[in-house]
Give the backbone structure.
Amino acid sequence: MDRLRTYQPSILVIGDLMLDHYLWGKCERISPEAPVQVVDIQNESTVLGGAGNVVNNLLSLGANVSVLSVVGDDENGKELLCMLETLGADIKGIVKQTGRKTSKKSRVIASHQQVVRYDSESKEDITEASVKALLAQCENYLDTVDIIVLSDYGKGVLTQSFTCNVIALAKSHQKCILVDPKGDDYRKYSGATLLTPNKKEASIATKIVIKDDESLQKAGTLLKESLSLEYAIITLSEDGMAIFGDNFMKMPTVAREVYDVTGAGDTVLASLGYALSCGLSMKEAASFANKAAAVVVGKLGSAIVTLDEIDAYSHSLRGATAESKIKTKTEMVALLKATKNQKIVFTNGCFDILHVGHVKYLEIAKSFGDILIVGLNADDSIKRLKGQSRPINPLEDRAYILASLESVSYVVPFEEDTPLELISAIKPDILVKGADYEGKVVVGSDIAKEVRLVQFVEGKSTTKIIERAQQK
């Protein structure tokens, strides 16, 4: 994900903004007035919804985001604009329309279950004056943005004429334009680069009941060809997503637990736009979006996702490459911020010539927790500790071999003679050292919650291996 971390794309988001309002509480009784739950509200929160959730996701990924939309000249509109500005979005392109009601959706949540939702909003098309104002703003942004994202929630901003004009403008400036569609008539999205309906939406729009791969291919192909798209992606919830470009490809889901799918489509749209803006291929971008969606459905309510969370989730999946498990101290600290409710185990050493004693030691260390981080002495550090003839194997080789072990979650090299600075940054739950440290002070023992000593395999050591090799 180097390109995703080193390039900060500029993305223009156009669509229906709204507030997602949550009332959180618990339910312990039924109302005597009617057969309904009585929810004792304990707190409330408000987050950006609709196109605002796309904006929020893009900002959390690290993009520069400009927004085009229409809000009402009301208190909800003021709150929404304030939230966007506080997050760092460019809101100069947002138009206020007198008499329009800014969308706000309120949800009552009791014991992590949504009980009821009530909406306050305007859904009619925006006025011609608002359309003209938005088109003028759009032209101002076209030369400075990498990509354009349309988030249509059917609340009247993306009218037929406005959407067609935006797509035409984008194409005239050779800008990719991604669309999360709404409704049963997708003709206004014709000529877009990419469309991302879910299975139900695609079935309604194409009038093809998607029940198997054959019907899925028919629907996706029809969307792509009839709307002159470069790509169509149909999201399939727990079954992943289907990509229609030059060829058909089905990408399976990577989600482990699903708590709430609210806003998952926004995350897919945002992460696709971000990845494509950073120069990833469509296949790479879809894989990235798939992982982003897997992270966000594990959260409750409209949620955002960060690069660190996606990176951490990628590494939690089977098949993480050895190279991807080698991290700097800064990267490791960032990853751990996205890791919750997991016990962190830390050990360190030179691991110059990896042998069975090392492997068994690391397997035992991993059994003490969920994530095993191995601090690895850099070459100069080993020379100072063991002499100029060491190490036998350079840091890059030692790190890669260690990272290839199933028991090792991450390898973090350090230049100092001791790993104190690294331990201070990581703050592990458990610090593991060899049994020869019995009665000795273990560096970092005042930082970790617990220190455990592991017995080495008798007769197995790098020094003995070197001695035997020299004798021969």
